[in-house]
Write a structure and sequence with these properties.
This protein is mainly α and about 375 residues long. It has one domain: HUPs (Rossmann fold). It has 16 helices and five strands. Strands 3-2-1-4-5 form a five-stranded parallel beta sheet, sandwiched between helices. The protein is globular and about 55 Å long. It starts with about 30 loop residues before the first helix and ends in a 9-residue tail after the last helix.
């Protein structure tokens, strides 16, 4: 635990991460981990044919040979383009509508799917259940209140893979823009169904029978080792520069940018830009900017300049507050009252954190990637 404020001399991570450490040069553990470990797994393939063989070692006669989740963000959109037009694969594209899609995200998804001539399957999450679960996380006092929609995404991802007997899942995760991950103390593992149910049991009222759920043992052990389901991050195997990808998507499909990473969801925009910094002093831009700094896509001085300004827009935050409250069928005053609840962490509720720690060690031992955000 750091008692005095300190910022890394290499990136912009600082002591708002309660477990951050610095070496004698003032370089943080995030940077050292990236250069000593993460870069070793960043190995672009020499040609597209070799990459395809890595992704699909066996020729498939099925209609779809891989599955891609599309959020409308730059990473998943570029992945859909590259897999379809460059690698010439036949992906099934799916999207999870958890009730928080922005109009821009919907438009971008349509542009990518129509432009590439892909089949899109959309899973719409039961809203009464989603609403109750979202409110339960607000009332829980934890920081990771974006878990419900992320968990729904993970669960549906594996559901569709099983339904269509697809053995390869491709994700937009990448070291180029996500070389530094959010500390667990900021955003706990969204796929932990034990934690999700524990928080809902204490603060929810609606049945979770209609809500898609996954288990770390099911998707990290059973599916890969008994069903041969594999998860890959192709963007780590090609030259991937964010701004170049944005320009290609704009020129080729008329895709439009978001003001910040992950802002395809209106809830995530509210959560990351306002709720986290206001209630917990967490600014996720530090993680996002630090990743770009380490890969030479952003100047540290520019990142520091942007971070000197608040992450939310003062002129529109009241509109966002009113929208979130209305969507959740509560008053804006009730929503704001949750800001003052006692601060809690994932440790205050039952979880399977020990399995994630064991699994991480096991995967590292086998030199395997985890294949998902959390």
């Amino acid at each position: 635990m750091n008692n005095q404020y300190q910022r890394c001399v290499s990136c912009v991570m600082d002591t708002s991460d309660p477990t951050i450490t610095f070496d004698t040069r003032g370089v943080c553990d995030h940077c050292n981990t990236f250069f000593r470990s993460s870069l070793k797994t960043w190995k672009p393939f020499s040609n597209n044919e070799a990459l395809v063989k890595r992704l699909l070692p066996n020729t498939s006669s099925q209609e779809y040979d891989c599955l891609i989740g599309l959020s409308g963000g730059v990473d998943s959109s570029y992945l859909a383009y590259y897999v379809t037009e460059v690698l010439r694969l036949r992906p099934l594209v799916f999207h999870v509508d958890a009730g928080w899609n922005s109009e821009l995200a919907v438009s971008n998804i349509e542009r990518i799917v129509d432009g590439l001539g892909l089949d899109l399957y959309t899973e719409v999450i039961d809203w009464p259940t989603m609403r109750d679960l979202q409110l339960a996380f607000f009332k829980s006092g934890v920081s990771h209140i974006d878990t419900p929609q992320d968990h729904a995404f993970f669960a549906t991802l594996y559901k569709y893979a099983s339904k269509f007997n697809i053995k390869t899942i491709l994700t937009g995760g990448n070291l180029s823009t996500e070389g530094i991950r959010n500390p667990v103390q900021w955003m706990y593992y969204q796929s932990d169904s034990v934690q999700l149910r524990a928080i809902h049991a204490r603060h929810g009222t609606h049945s979770l029978s209609a809500f898609p759920q996954t288990s770390v043992l099911w998707h990290k052990l059973y599916l890969p080792f008994f069903k041969n389901l594999r998860v890959f991050r192709p963007l780590d195997s090609i030259p991937y520069i964010k701004e170049d990808a944005v320009e290609l998507l704009k020129s080729k499909f008329g895709w439009k940018s978001y003001s910040q990473k992950h802002f395809e969801s209106r809830f995530t925009r509210f959560y990351e830009s306002f709720w986290l910094p206001t209630r917990f002093g967490i600014d996720v831009r530090k993680v996002q900017f630090s990743s770009l700094i380490l890969t030479g896509q952003m100047r540290r001085s520019h990142a520091i300049s942007i971070l000197s300004q608040p992450p939310w827009d003062h002129s529109t935050i009241n509109n966002d507050l009113n929208f979130i409250a209305k969507k959740l069928q509560i008053t804006t005053e009730e929503l704001l009252s949750y800001l003052h609840l006692p601060l809690k962490t994932h440790r205050d509720y039952s979880s399977q954190s020990y399995l994630y720690h064991l699994g991480s060690s096991f995967y590292k031992l086998l030199n395997l990637g985890l294949g998902e955000k959390r």
